[in-house]
Specification:
Radius of gyration of chain A: 16 Å
Largest sheet of chain A: 5 strands, antiparallel
Strand content of chain A: 35-45%
Helix content of chain A: 10-25%
Structural class of chain A: alpha+beta
Oligomer: homotetramer
Largest interface: A-D, 30 and 30 residues
Strand order of the largest sheet of chain A: 1-4-5-6-3
Number of strands of chain A: 8
Number of helices of chain A: 3
Distance between the termini of chain A: 5 Å
């Protein structure tokens, strides 16, 4: 299926002393993208999962390739797609494109693990989530 | 008694697109200062209070005067003193001085309220805290 | 004129160890609100001002009243209105309302100063900005 | 040579809605660690490099393995060592250990590139930096 796309704007406080986006802001963008993906693509409120069901997807692996710097005011399209869904894990791919020139400025891969947040213990990916993600 | 003093360094990611410290970083500095005050001046681990006893001091009022901008690499001395201790509230004063020239770059006043974090309900300032703070 | 309104969602990483929004996130929300105000209400890209014209509105005074905590997933309406426009300063008022119950959760007042960001020197509020703000 | 070690404490605002450190805080910890490494291990002020000489080491690749969650109040030892120094790149390894139990909670590898920050163009790793890093 088509990957999920969402847009954000680089904000005044996102940059660093070199005048480009501070790199820890990228995984923050990815997490906000994942929250929007749950809401807009799956119709699931990730806040309800976390607070209501004590269920979440903490990260165990993060890889980012930074190809071109982002600057204040850049509009960026984030594309999110789902990779391998394992017994307990979900793999995610993120691609960031600067809207002005269409250039890919960063790409990332994360692996997250289905987790009981109360006990902080691994769970099997629940059927409702597997079905929702495979439908993407 | 003497006010509590602690020092921090403005970090690479603390600035904004104008090249000076992004102003929401100031209250973050104050909070870290308060955590150090509890640890170093009172011998109390604020993390234990919050996590162990579900006790904390959420803020209800914040006032900051920004007098001179801070830049990446600036060493800053933070002075913390306690103001009025009410039935449920504690007033704090923060002063930031740039070490290079001794200039006061910002000053702040906060009011925090003794709170049961599980119920998010106001409490009277406990005696052990009142005693510890008055001893300062 | 009608105040400017914009909406945001409290994100997963916005909370603190007490499970409510970490208070330094509030001024960050206000700044993003101000950036949207420039774009959407005035048709001015604040990033262009800052990067292109080295013009900005650094803050000199911040006051926040925190009335009710915000939690992960809360949808919040921010209302922004302009107060007194002085020779060099602009006063702003921010009101945050939780959408679920319409409750005002925080209100704030800031004073910002028209500034040449290259020299970090005060300027008179330029006519184009005064006109744009007074039209609000 | 011995790797560089520095210690930090997980702060009140570092956690997320699951009650563990929000993962974008890890690369922020790494950057602060790198700033301390320059200061304390090499005797070089990274702020002077960036602001004074317009020289820096932006990241092009980040890999993190998250093994065990961090919580508010945890004291963490960060170990930093230098990997391959290429023509224009420097490879870094970061290991985070929870002090309470000595457990490795995260490890990371980054690749940074010597960069003229004014032009945002790649440079050869300067001799003074190569010498300083190889001496580690």
């Amino acid at each position: 299926m088509a990957p999920f796309r969402t847009t954000f704007i680089v904000r005044f406080g996102d940059v660093d002393s070199a005048g480009i986006v501070y790199y820890p802001r990228y995984p923050h963008y990815f997490h906000i993208g994942m929250e929007r993906f749950f809401q807009e693509a799956l119709g699931i409120d990730y806040a309800d999962l976390v607070a209501g069901q004590q269920f979440g997807l903490p990260i165990v692996r993060l890889e980012i390739d930074f190809r071109s710097p982002l600057r204040y005011g850049d509009r960026v399209e984030m594309e999110i797609s789902i990779g391998r869904i394992g017994t307990t894990s979900v793999e995610w791919f993120y691609t960031l494109r600067r809207e002005a020139d269409g250039e890919i400025v960063a790409s990332a891969r994360t692996v997250t693990v289905a987790t009981d947040l109360a006990a902080l213990e691994k769970l099997e990916v629940p059927d409702w989530l597997r079905t929702a993600l495979e439908g993407r």
